[in-house]
Amino acid sequence: MTSPASTTTRRHPSTLASGCARIPPDVSLQQIGAPEDDSSAAGGDLQQRLESSRVGRWLISLFLVATVSAVVIENLPSGAIQKHLASAAQPYLNATGLDQNWSMFAPYPRTEILYLEARVVHADGRVTIWRPPTGGPLVGAYRDAHWRKFAEHAVIRPGNPDGWPQLWKPLARYVASLDPGDRSPAVSVTLVKRSAFLLPPGGTADHTPFRQQSYYTLRLR
Predict the structure, then answer these.
(1) Nearest-5° Cα angle at 15, 14 to 16
(2) How far from 105 is each of 7, 108, 132, CA to CA, in Å?
(3) Cα separation, 208 vs 194, whole angstroms
(4) pTM of whole model > 0.85?
(5) Integer CA distances (angstroms), 106 to 68, 75, 103, in order
(6) In whole angstroms, how large is the CA radius of gyration of the chain?
(7) β-strand partners of 119
(8) How many Cα atoms within 13 Å fall on the side-chain side of residue 201?
(9) Which residues make beta-bridge pairs with 190?
(10) What does the DSSP assignment read for 83-106?
(11) Bridge-partner residues for 127, per DSSP?
(12) pLDDT tens per residue, range 79-132
């Protein structure tokens, strides 16, 4: 004879809580009470609306086609066709930061060594030289890479689309602003290009002698 205290009653989980409705097996906890991230939901809804609408799909497709086409044009072999197409693609590449190409590796890697200087003439006759900063802790290497890329665009490069004359005046003003002017203010800033050409391996020298070219002067006073 079994004691009442030892009797075990097996009940279905859905009836353990009195008065609670049975939870369907295909309903998750998040659906019945877990809080949702409103920002994620909003972002997901916007993406879903964009991808589910016909206009949104057209916009996404146009963006992908324009991006891929611009990158392909940028990396076509140099020639009249590439130059003509690049004139239309270059503004888009500049705006999106995709203006990269592999011409530094092939088929004709650059053989010119470029350096940028600025000669600052002061009211008392002193002349100081500014060069792009180098070195520094932590992010020094990354800063150096950006300055080197800037110098490639800021020096004069006749006939080369990588030369950007629109940088000359802002750069000269920037260099002038670095001078405290407590002793004698700057009266002019001249940008100078120092360049040489790499020579084929096996010779006694690895590059030609450096040449200097003053190509822009900003008069301040």
Answers:
(1) 100
(2) 84, 7, 25
(3) 12
(4) no
(5) 21, 11, 5
(6) 33
(7) 129, 190
(8) 0
(9) 119, 217
(10) HHHHHHHHHHHHHHT-----TTTS
(11) 121
(12) 888 888 888 888 888 888 787 766 667 667 788 899 999 999 999 999 999 999
